[in-house]
Each structure stands twice: as C-alpha cells, then as structure tokens.
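Quick one - inputs below.
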Amino acid sequence: MKASTVPTQELAERPEGYQGPDLSPRGLRLIPIPLAAGTWALVANIPPKDNNGLVVGDRAALVIDAGIVPDISAQIQHLAAKQTDRPLRYLVNTTYHGDHSFGNASFPAEVTVVSSKINRDNMTDLAYEKARRAGNMYGEVALLDAVTDWRRPEVVFETAAEIDLGGRVVQLLYFGPGNGPGDTIVYLPDAQVAWTGNYLNHAGVAPMLLQGGPIPYLDSLRRMRAALPALRTIVPGHGPVGDGRAAIDWLIGYLEQLLHDVREARRAGRTVQQTLETCPSPFAAGLDPRLVSYQLPQDTARHRLLELMGILHRLNVLATYRAWSAPRARLRDLRSARRLVAGCVRPAPAGAYHVGCPAATVWRPWCWWPAPRPWSLLLDALEEADGIGLERASMDSLSLACAVICFNALQRSPW
Ligand SMILES: [Zn+2]
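Output:
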C-alpha cells in the first residue's frame, strides 16, 4: 500500500470510555541511559510520556524528537550539552505528532530539523494538531499555549538518508505507514540501535492504529524486519527500551490477530459496538512477562500500563473496523462501474484465472485465483496476494471493485 492512500488525517473517533496515554510534560524528567559510546536513550521518568535520544560523533551531535513544549526542548538541549561538547547540529522528528515536534521551534537555527517528507507534509495545521494532542494532556491543556509556532523540517527524505556526524553515520529510514503515514526510524548501524518513535514499542506494548489500519502497517514492519537483520535494541517514542527483533515479531503477530478477529466479526455481521465487546484482547491475561522487569517495580504502575493496553486495544479494534468499512461502502457505490469490468479476469493455466486492473496501461495480474468462488473470498485473496487490501483508495478501489464485480457477475464465463 502506498503512503498516499493512507487517510490524510488521524482518526478522530474514539471508543467509549477512551482515555489516551498521558503525554503531559508535567513532571516529565528525561533520564540518560547509555547504550553505546556516544549513544544515549533519554527515557521519560513516567512512561508513557515521550522518550528522546542523543547520538554524538567526532564533529557533531544529533537528538531524536523535540519534546511537546519548549520546556522539554530546553531539557533535551541541556542534557545534550552535559553529555558532550560537540555542537548539536541535527534534530530528527520520528513523526509529525506534536509530542515529537512541537518543540522544534525551540532549537536554535543552526540545528537542522530532519524528517521524512511525509511527516513534513503533515505539519501544516497547528491548531488541528494541538486539538488532537489536547486529548493526551490530562488537565494540562493550557501548557500547549506555549506552542505558537510549528517549525517544519528543513531537510526531508523519501525512503532513506544518512547523516555523517564524524566517524559515525546515522541512518534515517522510512519503511511505510505505521502509527502515522511518515514514521521515521533513526538507526545507528555501529550500535545496532534504532529509535522508533510511535512506530514500534517494546514487545507486549500495544500500538495505536491512528492512521491507516493494520494492513499497510504489516507491510512496513515486514520491510523493516528484512532491512535490519542486525537490529538489537529499540528506543521507542514511548515506554521501555527493548529488543528490536522481538518487538517487530510481537507487533506483526498482534496486527495479524487483530485483522483476523475484526474480519471474522465483520463476516458475522457485527456492528462496531458488538465488535468492540466481543473482540478478544491479548491483554486480558495480563502484561507480557518481558515487560514486568522494566522500570515498573510498583504494582500501581504495572496496573496502569495494563489498563492502558486494554484501552489502546479497543482503539485498534475500532480503527481496524473503520479501515475495513470505508472501502466496502465505496464498493457498493461503484456497482455502476460494471462497464469497466472487461479484462479484470483472464484465463490462466490449469483452469484458473488471473485477476488484475483493466485500467492499467500494462495489464499485470494481481493474483491467481483457482476457481470460481464467492467474491468475499476473492477480496481476502487480493489482500493476502500483495497487500492491496481493502484500504486502497480511489483508482485502486475502483479497479478492485471492477475485478470483484466482474468475477461475481461472470463467474461462469469470465471473458
Ligand atoms: Zn508519540
């Protein structure tokens, strides 16, 4: 799935009783944790408030994420100055979300802000983004009054970039949509450490499917797993530092299960409310044992984290349900597109069919389909074939609809 087909704004709907993670800067203190020479995680004393990072080379230093308000940006710069006398030259935003980028304007002009192009393109409507983040302020919304200017990255990249800090290179990587459409990974090959923003948490910590649903996210995670075989440690934007490979595997498993469960609910004809009530939660049995040792010595902290996981899971169920529904509605609208169906299904060897887009300049099969079957199964096959999925917009949906309608209408003689 192309990033351009991810919804342009974050999902605004929330399940009943939803209370998002507490990202208020009140009481937030960043604790430097050394991970390798010249490499620190700056970890929030109160999870899941925002974490940051610091990487130092021979010539320059780089920090990861800017803080939600100027006070936190000042704290990050102070910590950087305490750890190194190399000049701070770069600031990377892992996402456009305000808790990672509102602080950009508080860094001096000689610090270059870098992020993916998609993140920068999302940093246009400060009032809207402040309104979204207000839901995470836990009574401290007024603290966001200090944010008056949303400084956008001066340097952007499409899929990969490198920053040479002198004697060490920092890689910036974009694997596709995840929590947001432009999630940027900061990878240090010499330390096998990645800062993953909102994209990837410690194994057992729920993601938030705010923009695009699980299908594009799964594709992106598989790309990351293939691209970084040596990855050892991740510093997520929120929550504990952890094992990167375990985190990717856990999240892929979580999203696959979520997709399966919501799909089953849809097939059974359940409403969104019924789906929220019946969809199993992987957190019902408690926290992942790998989390318990981390900085959560007190029962109350563990209890709060577990409660938050349950809440975020409900959000993910809702988001998956919505991501599924929208294209189905479009499909119904596109029934009149029957005249376009010719060419969607073509004969393949052994009595099978190829299904593809009739509008493409060069006809290319999307998938191989063994025999006439109900179109709902064809949809699943298309999803699984190459992640085309139900979330593709506009022309892709039209083509998908054509293929489906064609297949449905002409099952017995598709050409
Ligand atoms: Zn965040």
